[in-house]
Structure prediction request, 201 residues.
Amino acid sequence: MNVPLTRTAYEDPATRAAWRRTAVSRLCAFLLSLASFVIWLYVVLLTPVWTLWVLVPVLFVLIHVAMLATVKVSGILSLRRVLRVYPWRSFPGAASTAKNGTTRFSFPDPGHPAGRHVSLAYGDWLGSGYTFWIRKVRAGEVGEVWFAGDPRFLGVVAVPGPRRLVRVAQREAVDTRMPARRRGVSPEARERARAAGARVG
Prediction:
């Protein structure tokens, strides 16, 4: 499938549809996580006191799931922000599995066109779970990915189509506890990264 030849990824109707599907699925997951607390409370009220020791650990699991759902919902707008700045580009063989089980995406460094690559990671021990990007990349079923962004800062990765949108970022581009990247980036690239929501030096 060919990458859409638009100035930004979000100008492509299929990309807008993919973003809406992502937003709806994440919002539904968030609402279901909230509903699970109501169900848990209802079960607690109908359960004898001596069996509550079984239900208390379930509460901690529900809290963890709700926190993950909240993070994903809060990332919906940041996905769109990146897609409104950068176009899609195709990268065959960019996805691989790291030693710790997470997914690693490797893209050419825009500042060094002579073969140097920059890696972006997706997933960690807390919350990556057995998601599509972990499962399918590990099985070797993802040959080509679409990428909209600057790998030195952040971007959105998708299966060609696009489908399965996920945002990836360098830690210093999103973590205020780390110094923002200053060296090796042109003023134009820095400005585009800032427009996409990255921290730039």
About this structure: The helical segments are 13-46, 52-74, 76-83, 132-138, 171-174, 187-195.
